[in-house]
# Entry
Amino acid sequence: MSVVTEKSLQCELLVAGGGLSGVCCALAAARLGTKVILVQDRPVLGGNASSEIRMHVVGATGLHAGLPLELEPREGGLIEEIRLEFAVRNPQRSPAVADLILYEFCRAEPNLTLLLNTTVVAARVADGRIVDVTAERPSTEDRFTIAATMFADCTGDGRLGAEAGAPCLRGREGRDAFGEPLAPPQGDTKTLGSTILFQARRHDRPMPFVAPPWVRKFTASDFKLRPFGKSGSDLGLEYGYWWIEWGGCLDSIKDGERIRDELLGITLGVWNHIKNESGLDVAHWALDWIGFVPGKRESRRFLGQHVLTENDVLGSRPFADAIAFGGWPIDTHPPEGVDAPGEAPCTQHHVPWLYDLPLRSCVASTLRNLFFAGRNISATHLAFASTRVMATCAAMGQGVGTAAALALRAGVAPAEIAGDAALVGRIQQQLLRDDAYLLGVPNRDDADLARRAVVTASSAQPGGEPALVVSGQTRAVHGPAPAAGNAAAGPANHWEDVLKALDSGPSRPHYTVAPPDRARPGMHRWLSDPAGGLPAWLELRWAELVAVREVGLIFDTGLHRFLTLSQADGYTRRMHWGEPQPETVRDYCLEVETAAAPGEWRAVHTERGNYQRRRVHRFVAAGAPALAGIRALRLVVTATNGLDHARVCEVRVYA
# Structure
């Protein structure tokens, strides 16, 4: 007789996988009223960013980030909310505290049920739809049958979709398969490898290291293209190294245990070389942590309604069903990893333009109710080499969760969404309302009363006029002119620039900007005049009386900078970490002028200590708007987190 307890659960959306794509997918849907179950096979959330692996989150900021008020490529929306929370509440850069914060995000949502230590192991399919999945939690001897209307595979390895029979792509496609110039002449089954990271710290006395007998042996010649102990972003002694990579010539799923064991030997062998053979002054340094879960880069990729290609990425092909954007280089690695010391550990092809990620690359081609988000989306190996990074995956996750929530309301299956232009439009407008960014898509929400208001302010800087809070865009993405550093060709390999910079200093940056036809140039925010000091106010006035149920605010959080939890000291020094972003409004109040008391301003909300980019304030009493007969609304900024003037990117008002 089995000790396993059988349990049945039901939801509207089942999300498998609790990395950042799965977390953002689940949060987005739950916040829009969808009943969500999030199944995660590990004890913590975050995937490759969790305390088990500790890779820092990168995305469209690429290798050079952006420029203030010109180029702000950092992803907004949920991943920005998470990053800002990490930066303020985790100044000590603790990986375990980051795990806890992600757990808190999920626990805070009443529509979200979280099942940790639980793995989807089977799926039941009927009439082209997934009916339910089987998930097992060995720690409690439970087996769940989970029925749902829609399913999202955010597992990375694609376990849910594979169990349901969704077709997959694996390895590297040949050049002729999709007409990709960067592809090899012939395809193969090789992938990017996996990595085990380590952390070390300096002590006040010598700390010897005796290597186990099974570690790899290295010589100085193995590291000519793989530097360590440098002052670069992630090349110091305290944290490393992404280039400790192996396993791309094997099956990263079926050979996972072998890959883990070999990577432990490689990682400890690298440390042994650093400590005992490199000649560096490292006597006081000692290992503090080493991962036992490899950071996996690539395994299955699903065949969706559209296969994203190198040409889509490098050409920034517009997609009418875009739900997110990317901008990381096309970043390929030799499958042999450290076994190919004569090859650069990566080839990072410059991506000149930010590019669309279409919903159709996140929807199954053969199953009517399956989404996917993360590194397993429908993309060729080369397109995946750009989309695979975690901030891009998180943005996709929010897009998929939003699409699922609105499609459920409309009674439309995932397979049919892209063919419903009106529904796609509503999905995109909801994403914008939730602070996601979509290339060239402005706010067109007819329900937003702010778009009908006359906007004035106590003061303004040139180019930062008050009316820009209703421009329909909340960031600058036009970037520098090509002559100033954005030549479309860019370097053949960004990694070569990194190596040169170690000897001769930083090279000229190559920025990734919005395509000119979708950039909508401008700063897209109100900037008060520093000469006028604070408080500074922004006013929205209507020709007719309005009722106000909700006010949404988007503040400046320095989206031109890097911002991510990293164990690399050099990378962290390029951020504002351990504190709010200095551009962000800290203290403010909302005031209204009513028909009953013209000329008088009444405070309806006061906020102190804000550090988030998106703030939503609701005014509801007995199910109806609590603020009625409103002539005008004022946002009064009394303090920022560092700047001498106020910055507001957007104001929305809903009845």
Notes: Residues 483-487 have pLDDT under 50 and may be disordered. DSSP finds 13 helices and 30 strands in the chain.
